[in-house]
Amino acid sequence: MRQEQKIEIRRQTRSLGTLVIKPISRARARDMVIAGHYSHKWQASFGKFSFGVFREGAEDESQCLGVAAFGYMKTPKARIFTCSVEGGWMCELNRMWLDDSLGKNAETVLLGASFKLLRRMDPTIVAVQSFADGRVGCGTIYKASNFDYYGFHWTTFLQNSRSGEITHEQILTNATCASGFARTNVELLAGDMTVFRAKTYRYIYPLHPSFKFTGQGRKQPYPPYEKGVEPTNWYVNPERLRPRLIAALDTLLARWPHTRDEAGRKRA
Questions:
Q1: Nearest partner of 244 among 182, 183, 152, 193, judged by Cα
Q2: Tens digits of residue pLDDT in 67-98
């Protein structure tokens, strides 16, 4: 009987010895990202494929020293590319984190091996997209890994002056999560939020020769290095926000388990 081939890649490096890159569980990837990544956040669409990096001989999942998590694009049905692969899709590098003991060269090793593993595990993936957060840099690791650069757009963030938590602008307009929508807008109206913006850089690594990006922006030379934020304003339209806030509060009230009727009885 033919022995099943392991889904892993081994890379011999000069300074780090032999590194092993292989799939890890989504739960392990999530825990590592929340604990180590600067955002400390994980979303439901993250981690359809997650790859960990290990030192040879220390390959138990608990000994994982880094992770690259790949998932769906924020708008998976957006028509921003063409390809000749039936059912072809572009995944997104959601999060990447490595332990400092590995050094920066390990990032390119992890990415390169992850791309080979993605091809093996799902041949319909035709490209990998990732975004560099201008708050911390402009995508140096993507340049080193030979991604193509497709320009930048501005992203607005809010920071709560009481808790220090930083939130993406999307939560102010997306009422799908009633609690987050209501809470963040009320905090903004109460004057507890500082609003700022940063550049978000788009990088794409083609995995299939037929892939062609057709979305906004064109392939460009890599940007000069910069990072940082700048203050900005957030316009509130009272007539539009008021009914949406009321609807969000009604949703929360309907869920509240201890709502009582007019006679003071707990409602079932």
A1: 182
A2: 999 999 888 778 899 999 999 999 999 999 99
